[in-house]
Structures are given as structure tokens and as C-alpha cells.
Write a structure and sequence with these properties.
The longest helix is centred in the middle third of the chain and has 22 residues. The radius of gyration is 28 Å and the shape is globular. Helix content is about 15%, strand content about 45%. With about 725 residues, it is mainly beta. It is built from 8 helices and 41 strands.
């Protein structure tokens, strides 16, 4: 007799790691415990040590009104003198009035660029006189910047390298592996740039940890930072250095939730008034999981992170409800004894051994009956434990003119793709997630003794006889939840969309959600959210390929950028694809235009970073960076031919038409066609009728109508040689 698979219980539990949530008849309380404050450092240390110990490391995953996405041009108040553009583009943002930091900013005259460890300030308008006015050199690596009138805010990280353990004597700081350790620090520098040729450092804030994200509303900047807890035996409290003075955050000012987690960090929310140098920053510090994706409205910050429970913790539930009811009394007694006298890890092997002995004594007919009964009972158990396995935790912090107050928290099944998976509208918080089944293509596997594998596959295939079964056994499912902003309780839900696909792009616009899921074709869902308690699909469009980012063209049309996909053949993913969708009839969305760039290997930073996407309906222009290949060989790989920016005319009548291309390739620097090359165009912007493209090495100005080159300046980019530390 042939045993076709391994441990029954391990596979059962692994399959339950992302099972499907049953739609409840009543509102489910998925709330965290109430927020508390520690009374002392000792209490904080004991809490972290005890609660981390309670949680084993389970499976984790690598994670994928019509709002104006490009804020309207404003009076360029930062540009005090000289010629100033009458209109200019700004960073492509998600929420009108909530600015997002980026590597490039402009104010209608000056361009500010992050270049290596420097910030370059360029007098860019008029372009004929374009020149660099100053370069601010930083101790650390700048990540993003804001510009507000005469203030420049710079965010970034720096690392202090050392060997061995932080508290060891200097002479003994050598790790056994010889690998250097890092003590990360995040910095926030605020400069007075009223004199563009001589910027002055006004405020200097350094925090042990990492910069996560930030937003700016009028003059107030809100910054999210994470501080790692590297040693649970001696927890380092967050320390903020402000203008050279150390401010340690005491344990009595740290908020927490009385619940175990597999990983803890201190998340610090800071607010800084760029307009008032004398006003001290405000802060809130919360002990939580690793904050990774945020959404910010005009009045709230939503901080999210993922929590994955250890599937071993559900062993007894699965055994008691899916296995034991189908066993004879003598085997039940054996398993109960194993449960009583072994830990949760040992019992898997021991119970599996007992099951193999039991199944080997059954006839083929008895085995088939036993396997079928287990499968059916296991399906029921999955529904009950799904929400305990894979969750997104949401924290809401209210903001108002720099004031920060913690307000509420909530929890939903699944994980987020990015910030566009979230939205606040008319007192509701909307969010789209994906849940995965880690058990494999058929969901749950059981050991089948003495049955040919082809028969196993055939039996499983024949069991999928209706939609409910398909949903139960899907590898992944997608969901939309509507939460009340005040308490983040779930008030509406739309679950189990697109079995075996996952979310590739999402965009909430007023009372609709446009959602793209993908496996082989691109279903664009139009979802109605006008009734928060009852979200529903209005229509969907299935076409080859997928979109990674969705952008509003107007109230009835959406632009998508992603990849083209062939439905057949081994080389399925093709070039970068632009699509224009008519959603005026939500029950019947239509792709009215598309344009494909290159073939397999062609890429664009705009697929992953919305700030690299420049669009203006008024100017009839769309600009995206492109790394182009037009030939792919399985033997030679990808042959990159060109990189730069594609400039399109976009209209409802004619779709996408290439106006031209701009490259930063020069005679002395033309062979570097690889990802993130110094000559890769990363951002673009316009001032009046001038298009500016920015790479690490250059800012180039071209006429917007015919793309004739006007001028360029070389940036102070330094190509550092690869350093290997032994």
C-alpha cells in the first residue's frame, strides 16, 4: 500500500492558515483590547517579555466625491523673486489637501531634488537660465522631502555600524559571524530656505528607529517612525534628540494594548509646525506591531499592520471538531491521551502516527468514507478560525492643527496591498483586503492510503460542484469592509470576490471602489459603496493583463497602468500597458483605449510608485518613466534598449498617442540600462509649458508641445563603489 502524503494534522492546520471567513449574521467584535499606559519601565519590560513569549512565529507573507489625485496648482509663495510659472504640477497625491513627501518637489520656480546624501536646490524657471543654487549635504541618507514656503523638511535614515552587541565593551564588539550590526536612526531636518543659496538648518530631530511615512496639511507635518525592540531582556525606550538635547520617552507615556503579538515596536507619531520655529513638536508613542502602511485624511491618521497567528495554536480545535468525531472510541482515547501529555508541537507527529496505523487497517471503501467525512467537518472548522489567523490591525489617530489624539482601533481579516486600499468618506473608513490559503491549490490535503494519485486528483476535482465549494477551497479571496470611523467597527462587508486571484490595484472615489484582481485576466470591479451597510458589485470587466495603479481621468473614466498578459504560452507577462476605462455605466465598464509599451521585461517605476505618474487632463498630458525592452530571449534574457520618460497625449476620442520620449542618456553615459540606473528618469513635472524630467544625474527641461530640449543641469550624483565588509 502507498501513502501519498505526509502528516495529516500538519497539513490540515497549514491549510487553515488562511481559510475563508463566513459572513456573520450579526456584527462581529474584532476590536483590540482597550488602550492603556504603562505605569513603570518594569511593567513595560515584563509585558513585552511575557507576551512575545506567548506568540510563536507563524507563517508570514511577502506581501502586493471624486478626489483630485494631483493637487491643483497654487500661488508659488515659496518663490519670492524673479520669473515664476503661472501654473505648475505638484506631487501626485491620494487625498486633496494632504501632501505626501517625495524625492522631488517644486514651487513654480525652484526644483528641490534628493540626490544621494544631498538635497539640490535648482533655479529652474525660466529654463534657459536653469542652474544649481546650492547642495545641502547630510549626515545620513535622505528619503523624502516637503517644501512649504521658505521651509524645507527632510526625512531619512542613518545607520551606526558596529560589531557584536551594543552594550559590550568596544574591544569585544565582534560578532561570531563577523557581520556588523546596525543601530538605525531616523532624522527630520528643517531648513530655512529663504536664501536658496545658503540654506540654514533650523531644527534637528533624531530618533532611534526608522522613518516610515509622513503627510503635510497646511503648515503641519505628521511623521510616523518605528523603533525596534532588539533586546527583550533590556528594552531601550525611544529617545528623541531635539536640537542636540536628548529627550527619553518614559514608559508612563507609552500606550499599549493588553494582547500578545509576534513582534513589537514603538511607533512614534510626531507633528511639527513648519511655520513656527519656537513651537515644540507633539508626539504620541504606541507599543504595537510593525507599522507599515498608512492612510491620512484631513482629520485622521490610520496606521495599519499585519498580524499572523501561529497555526499550531488551533491544533486542539481542529482535532476536537474535525478529527475525533470521525474516529472509533479506541483511537479517540489514544489521541486524547496524546493531547494531555504532549506539547502542541510534539502532538502533531504522535497523532499522525496513530492515524497512519488506523488508516492502514481500513479497507479502501472505509478509507474513502473516512477522508470524505474529515474534509466536510474541516470545512466547518475553517470558517470559525479564519479571522484568528490573518488580520490587518487599524489604529486611528485624530489630527487637528498639529494636535494628536489616539481615538480608536479595529481589526479585519486579510492584508492590504498599499495605501490606495484604504479611504475615508462621509464618516466611514473603507478598506479592501486579500486572504490567502497557505495550504495549496486544493486548500486542504489529507493522507490517502493505497489510492492512486490520479484518482485522488479526480476525486478532488469532482468535489468542486458549486460556487460555495470553489470559494471554500480557493487559494486566495478578496474582500471589502466598511467601518464606522468613530469606533472602527465593521458596519458593512463584501466578501469572497475573485476566488484564486488577489488585489493588484484599488481606488476609492466618492461612493465607488474600482478594484483590480488578477491571476490570468484582469477583472476590473465597479463596487457601489453608497449604502455603507451593503456594498455590492455593480459590474466587472475581464480583459487580459492587469493594472497596478488606477488614476481618475474624470468622473466617468479611469486610467490604469500595469502589464499586458498573454493567456497562453510560457512567456505570459508582456510589456507595460496603459488602459482607459469608461465607467459611466457601472454595470458595464468598457476599455475604450489601450497602449502597450515594449515586451517582457519592460518596466516603469509608476507601477509601484504613484508619485512617478504625472497626469494633467487640462494639458492633455500623461508622463511615465520607462525602462524599455523590445526583445526577450529565453537564452539571452532581457535586452534593455532605452530608458527615460514616455510622454502621451490622452483623450477620450483618440486614447493614448505618444507625443515623444525624453532620455537622460549622454554620449559618456549610455550603456547603463539596468534597474535604478543613475540616468533612469524617476520623476517629471511641468511649469507652464515646460516639461522637467529628473534622474539621479540630471534635471532636463523640454518644451511640452514638441519636446524640444531647452537646457539641462548635472546633479551632484556620486557613484559609490561597492564596499564589502569582512
Amino acid at each position: 500500500m502507498k501513502i501519498l502524503s505526509v502528516l495529516l494534522i500538519l497539513l490540515l492546520i497549514a491549510g487553515c492558515n488562511s481559510v475563508i471567513e463566513e459572513k456573520p449574521k450579526t456584527k462581529i467584535d474584532l476590536k483590540e483590547s482597550e488602550m492603556k499606559k504603562f505605569s513603570s519601565y518594569e511593567e513595560l519590560q515584563i509585558f513585552i517579555k511575557d507576551n512575545v513569549a506567548k506568540v510563536s512565529y507563524g507563517q508570514t507573507m511577502g506581501v502586493r466625491t471624486m478626489q483630485e489625485s494631483v493637487a491643483p496648482a497654487q500661488a508659488p509663495s515659496a518663490a519670492k523673486a524673479g520669473d515664476v510659472a503661472s501654473e505648475y504640477s505638484q506631487t501626485n497625491i491620494q487625498v486633496k489637501g494632504v501632501d505626501e513627501a517625495d524625492i522631488v518637489k517644486n514651487d513654480g520656480k525652484y526644483i528641490y531634488v534628493v540626490v544621494g546624501n544631498k538635497i539640490s536646490i535648482i533655479d529652474a524657471y525660466p529654463p534657459e537660465n536653469m542652474k544649481i543654487l546650492s547642495n545641502i549635504e547630510l549626515d545620513g541618507t535622505p528619503t523624502e522631502i516637503f517644501v512649504n514656503d521658505d521651509k524645507l523638511a527632510v526625512f531619512g535614515n542613518k545607520y551606526n555600524y558596529y560589531y557584536g552587541y551594543r552594550d559590550a565593551p568596544m574591544e569585544s564588539k565582534i560578532a561570531p559571524s563577523g557581520i556588523p550590526s546596525m543601530s538605525p536612526k531616523a532624522f527630520i531636518y528643517v531648513y530655512d530656505i529663504s536664501d536658496k543659496e545658503n540654506p540654514e538648518l533650523e531644527r534637528n530631530i533624531i530618533l532611534n528607529g526608522n522613518y516610515v511615512d509622513s503627510r503635510m496639511i497646511e503648515n503641519d507635518v505628521y511623521v510616523i517612525l518605528n523603533s525596534y525592540i532588539n533586546n527583550i531582556e533590556g528594552v531601550d525606550l525611544p529617545v528623541i534628540m531635539y536640537n542636540g538635547k536628548n529627550i527619553e520617552v518614559p514608559a508612563s507615556e507609552i500606550y499599549y494594548f493588553d494582547r500578545p503579538d509576534y513582534s513589537y515596536q514603538f511607533t512614534t507619531i510626531l507633528s511639527i509646525d513648519l511655520d513656527d520655529e519656537m513651537k515644540e513638536f507633539s508626539k504620541k508613542v504606541i507599543l504595537m506591531g510593525t507599522a507599515n502602511t498608512i492612510y491620512v485624511s484631513l482629520s485622521n491618521i490610520y496606521i495599519t499592520y499585519q498580524r499572523y497567528s501561529d497555526y499550531y495554536d488551533y491544533t486542539d480545535k481542529i482535532i476536537d471538531e474535525a478529527l475525533i468525531p470521525n474516529l472509533p472510541s479506541d483511537i479517540k482515547d489514544e489521541i486524547e491521551d496524546i493531547k494531555t501529555n504532549t506539547n502542541k508541537y510534539e502532538r502533531l507527529q504522535k497523532i499522525s502516527d496513530e492515524l497512519i496505523i488506523y488508516m492502514n487497517r481500513l479497507s479502501e471503501e472505509e478509507r474513502m468514507k473516512f477522508e470524505k467525512e474529515i474534509q466536510e467537518d474541516l470545512m466547518k472548522v475553517q470558517y470559525e478560525i479564519q479571522r484568528e489567523i490573518q488580520k490587518t490591525i487599524i489604529h486611528r489617530i485624530s489630527i487637528n492643527e498639529g494636535n494628536i489624539e489616539y481615538e480608536a482601533n479595529g481589526m479585519i481579516p486579510g492584508y492590504l496591498l498599499n495605501q490606495f486600499s484604504m479611504d475615508e468618506h462621509d464618516g466611514y473608513f473603507r478598506i479592501a483586503t486579500t486572504t490567502n490559503n497557505w495550504g495549496g491549490g486544493w486548500g486542504i490535503a489529507v493522507p490517502m492510503v493505497g489510492i492512486p494519485e490520479t484518482q485522488v486528483v479526480r476525486a478532488q476535482a469532482e468535489s468542486i460542484i458549486n460556487e460555495e465549494r470553489i470559494i471554500r477551497e480557493a487559494n486566495s479571496l478578496n474582500h471589502v469592509y466598511v467601518l464606522d470611523v468613530q469606533d472602527l467597527g465593521i458596519v458593512g462587508r463584501l466578501e469572497n470576490l475573485a476566488p484564486n486571484e488577489q488585489i493588484y490595484a484599488a481606488r476609492f472615489l466618492s461612493e465607488r471602489l474600482y478594484l483590480v484582481t488578477f491571476r490570468r485576466v484582469d477583472p476590473l470591479f465597479v463596487i457601489d459603496l453608497s449604502n455603507p451597510s451593503n456594498p455590492e458589485v455593480l459590474g466587472k470587466l475581464k480583459i487580459p493583463g492587469f493594472s497596478d495603479y488606477l488614476h481618475p481621468y474624470d468622473e466617468d473614466h479611469i486610467i490604469g497602468i500595469g502589464k499586458e498578459v498573454r493567456e497562453e504560452g510560457w512567456q505570459q507577462v508582456q510589456g507595460v500597458k496603459l488602459g482607459l476605462f469608461d465607467v459611466s455605466d457601472p454595470s458595464n465598464p468598457i476599455e475604450i483605449a489601450k497602449y502597450e509599451i515594449g515586451t517582457t521585461g519592460t518596466d516603469s517605476e509608476a507601477l509601484r510608485e504613484h508619485k512617478a505618474f504625472l497626469f494633467s487632463k487640462d494639458k492633455n498630458i500623461l508622463v511615465i518613466p520607462i525602462l524599455l525592452t523590445e526583445k526577450f530571449s529565453i537564452y539571452e534574457g532581457i535586452n534593455y534598449l532605452w530608458q527615460g520618460a514616455y510622454v502621451f497625449d490622452v483623450s477620450l476620442n483618440e486614447g493614448f498617442k505618444v507625443r515623444g520620449r525624453v532620455t537622460h542618456t549622454t554620449p559618456d553615459y549610455k550603456e547603463q540600462y539596468y534597474y535604478f540606473s543613475p540616468i533612469s528618469v524617476r520623476r517629471s513635472l511641468y511649469m507652464d509649458d515646460i516639461l522637467y524630467t529628473i534622474s539621479d544625474r540630471m534635471v532636463k527641461a523640454n518644451r511640452l508641445d514638441n519636446l524640444e530640449e531647452i537646457n539641462s543641469v548635472k546633479l551632484p550624483y556620486f557613484e559609490q563603489p561597492l564596499t564589502v565588509i569582512y
